[in-house]
Design brief:
single chain, 71 residues, mainly alpha
Amino acid sequence: MSEGETERWIAELAQLRRELAELRAEQQELAHAVQELAKTFRALAMHFGIASEPYSKAKGSEKSRDLPGFA
């Protein structure tokens, strides 16, 4: 491999690294936008009465309780 080919490969590799960094940044922005969209839909659903906040057990409640019909 000649010196010119090596330099070309190094330049191409650097360009690919820059493109990959840009794609990762765009992916992070998209993930943030999707989280915001889900948050908005959840808020709208609660506002319209379609959904409610998930039930959360009290911290002192027993986890392994006896449920009827599941013996």
